[in-house]
Amino acid sequence: MTDQMTDKTDKMVTLSTLLEQCGSGGDANPVTLPQGWTQGRTAFGGLSTALAYHAASHIEEDLPGLRSAQIAFTGPLFGALTAQTKMLRRGRNTAFVQSELFGEKGLGLHCNFIFASQRDTEIKSHDMAHPDFPPLPKEEELHSGPEQFFTSKMEFVGKRIDTSIKTNRLTRWMRLKDREGLDPIAEILCMGDSLPPSIMGLLDKNAMVSSMNWQVNIIADHPATTDGWWLIDSQTHHADHGASSQFMSIWNSDRQLAATGMQSVAYYA
Q1: DSSP class per residue in 123-189
Q2: SS3 98
Q3: pTM above 0.90?
Q4: For 175-212, what is each residue's pLDDT tens digit?
Q5: How far is it between the farthest Cα atoms of the chain?
Q6: Measured between alpha carbons, how far is 253 from 242 in angstroms, rounded to an integer?
Q7: Residues 239-248: pLDDT tens digits?
Q8: Please, are residues 60 and 102 in contact by the beta-carbon 8 Å criterion?
């Protein structure tokens, strides 16, 4: 009966709920990690990044919008998670905020968030190659992952990765089941890490992989999409000596670029 109650409780724990529990800035509170938000022996990287961002974005009341984030996955996170933030520098237009997440084994996530005001500029450039956009998913096509895995909180079509097809590129529409009231930046940071590392498309299904760090640049001034759908595109452009480098991008339902990224991923094969 206890396990059934735990499973039912896990289903009710949304990203919004966890962010509210986290609190903000210097008043961040411990958040108990539910099983349904884990991947293997650690918190889902998108969740831990969103928690760290939430705490950082509330360190002062008048921060401008997020423009860039540097995220280091330093170790496993489980149990009670606590965010600690520090203002590194605050200028007239830009703020650099450090945000770290600690679990029962100590430091598990180290982030530097750059918040910057928009400025009018004469020079503009839009030169990002579009991925191949699959049709937007239909309701009857949707499914989620197992209850003990973070994909239980999401919806998508088919498999996130098909190991029978050797490819260095993964492209999928993904969305959160429950996204009401979310800060769109927290949503993007969560969903941006929702695909497996693209190196897995080249490996056998039993090979181990682990993301080491992640750079994210927010492109859209006001990120928004229809019905929660974000197209996540990830392409491994180099892999050797157990380390791969992948380019990433996030697009909305109107095929507009929302964010770009790059990850370094360790692989064991």
Answers
A1: -----PPP---PPPPPGGGEE---TTSGGGGEEEES-S--TTS--SEEEEEEEES--TT--HHHHHH
A2: strand
A3: yes
A4: 999 999 999 999 999 999 999 999 999 987 678 899 99
A5: 64
A6: 35
A7: 999 999 999 9
A8: no
